[in-house]
């Protein structure tokens, strides 16, 4: 529940699917829109207790809708066998360095939220708005800041988190990676690079080749 409002930021930092079958879609993360067409995918609702979550699972399993929790392809879900939370909203980051930043951000966010006062409640619709903004506009979009409930651009929130999460990240040991969050926010994820090449007339295979070659840079 506490991580759900921050999912749009994680998507905005990782967008890498602006094309579908070689055609520009108008989105920075078209993969997100494809997954939302599935009945058990997308943004989950909040749960008031573990019992409420179990009740839903038992209902779906008893009616043959799912065979296990793995059939719930939510953007974030519990991972009982590991005793953790699985964040699934991200596109595949286009650079290995970006991947390290995003993983560090997720870990530090979870640590910070578990150690601090819970933010005020935010409606499902507000989170869904942020997710759509991330999918459509990438880092140029906006969301509702879960702590202040104000509308804020993704880049601005990334800069704020760079400051807010510095101390928790140093305590957790993730700061060597998280400190490059501002670099990622300013450079922007690979969807922007792909679209820039497209605007210059590059073919889709040439764009993919450039992304692959740049993954380890």
Automatic annotation (TrEMBL):
GO process annotations (BP): modified amino acid biosynthetic process
Identify one Pfam family in the record. Answer: GCS2
Q: Give GO terms: molecular function aspect only.
A: glutamate-cysteine ligase activity
Q: What InterPro entries does the record tag this protein with?
A: GCL_type2/YbdK_subfam, GCS2, Gln_synth/guanido_kin_cat_dom
Organism domain of life? Bacteria
Q: What is this protein called?
A: Glutamate--cysteine ligase
The lineage, from the top, is: Bacteria, Pseudomonadati, Thermodesulfobacteriota, Thermodesulfobacteria, Thermodesulfobacteriales
